[in-house]
Design brief:
2 copies of one chain form a homodimer.
Chain A lengths: L5 H15 L8 E2 L1 H8 L3 H13 L3 E4 L3 E4 L4 H22 L5 H19 L4 H16 L3 H21 L8 H14 L2 H44 L1
Antiparallel strand pairs in A: 1-3, 2-3
Helix pairs in contact in A: 1-3, 2-3, 4-6, 4-7, 4-9, 5-6, 5-8, 6-7, 7-9, 8-9
The structure holds a DNA duplex.
GO molecular function (chains A, B): DNA binding; DNA-binding transcription factor activity
Pfam family, one (chains A, B): GntR
Keywords (chains A, B): DNA-binding, Transcription, Transcription regulation
DNA sequence: TCGGGCTAAATCGTATACAATTTGATCAGA
DNA sequence: TCTGATCAAATTGTATACGATTTAGCCCGA
């Protein structure tokens, strides 16, 4: 029998990927027994993995009711994106004008991977695009920022899958290139502006659309009843 | 037998308090059995509590070696304080000029509790002072910011206990008052300045002193050997 | 037909048993 | 005396058993 938390990590990683790739959709129940059987592990181990995921709010655990894939509300989504805006600003402020050639190369490679996947129609381009922001955080050398960014990026992906439209991410390759250029020549004001609008385009517009759709949806749903009340 | 995670929460809260009040000092081993016996719970429950504490980095869990009270390095301390500076700036930027009278009153009450405890020499004044920053975060209405601030404040307390000198916190009452005043009249530039220097005084100077002490300590430790090398 | 209570199935929360690992002490040999 | 191997004690990692809780289906009486 293997020891250590290797198995916990494996299950954690597996579930996390499945959630972020939308194989497990928000709201899906995650019973400990079923998952344990799948992975060939006991509930003890599965539970620990689920608790880790709950720690980054990718799954919801409600006492005595089990775990489900998290289904953030629009309010939670707005809160998340708003905080992410600020944290990304923290990151670029720390990096602006301080990028080494090696780091610039690393970023360019990341963008190229994203571009290639996007051109070839592979869905990993989403993961690569998200990783770009994580790599930026890593370059600050601040473990805490990395930790936060990892959570923020993961949860953002979940939310985009829930509310977003894929087309919003199309422009991100060029925007990522512009960000790197700006980081290199140290134009902080322009950099902040670019990052803000980049995130606005990718994140906020998606959920704003969702919010409008939802409002309209409620109106439509209620319309027949209003009609009935008027005539009845 | 009670159900739910109530018992986990109780143990979590108990351990957390003990750590933050420095009853359990950094490095102290936290064996699951011993704690379980103390609280009258099984290892299962204790383990969960320890994992929660590890989640906010108040305890260290190393595979097969058990949990100890976290003992952050000076580098980790610097990283934490640096990020905390930025997050606190996020908070005041969101609150500046937007404080309701009720909120101002709440803050004043918090400061008074701190002042009273300080005047009477009760050690809770430290907890009250830390809570002030948490209350500010709560007033932003952003659950995420509250979450982050809670972690940051908790870990800051741990670090101050490890490296800090108590006298640095003396001036915080007046500084907290100034912050509230500034939040009310909406002078953002001055507010940012105040908060920066407030945190600098409370946090950074403490560990800078510790760093100098440590450096000097190494010099002292090495001195005899240098002497020996010179004569040998 | 419909709502309220009852029961059974599913699933979680906790305790406990046992295996695996670490750690420190002991002891033999150089 | 010192070094390294070996073994026992302490402690963690995982599996599993069992009680507790939720949930949903079912039946029955109105």
């Amino acid at each position: 029998m293997k020891q250590r938390g290797e198995r916990v990590d494996a299950i954690y990683a597996g579930l996390r990927l499945a959630i972020l790739e939308q194989v497990l959709q928000p709201g899906t129940k995650l019973p400990e027994d079923a998952i344990g059987e799948q992975f060939g592990a006991s509930r003890t181990v599965v539970r620990r993995a689920l608790e880790l995921l709950a720690g980054e709010e990718l799954v919801d655990i409600r006492p005595n009711r089990g775990a489900t894939v998290a289904k953030p509300s629009l309010d939670e989504a707005r809160d998340l994106f708003s905080v992410r805006q600020d944290v990304e600003q923290m990151v670029i402020r720390r990096l602006c004008g301080r990028l080494t050639p090696a780091q610039a190369k690393r970023l360019e490679a990341q963008i190229e991977a994203e571009e290639r996947a996007h051109r070839e129609g592979r869905p990993e381009y989403i993961r690569h695009a998200a990783e770009f922001h994580l790599v930026l955080a890593e370059m600050t050398g601040s473990p805490l920022l990395v930790r936060y960014m990892r959570q923020l990026v993961g949860r953002s992906a979940l939310i985009l899958g829930l509310y977003g439209r894929p087309r919003w991410t199309d422009c991100s390759v060029q925007e990522h290139r512009d960000l790197v250029t700006c980081l290199l020549n140290g134009d902080l004001a322009r950099l902040e502006h670019l990052m803000h609008h980049h995130l606005e385009a990718v994140l906020s517009r998606a959920i704003d659309t969702a919010a409008r759709d939802k409002e309209r949806g409620i109106r439509d749903l209620l319309a027949p009843y209003v009609e009935a009340a008027r005539s009845g």
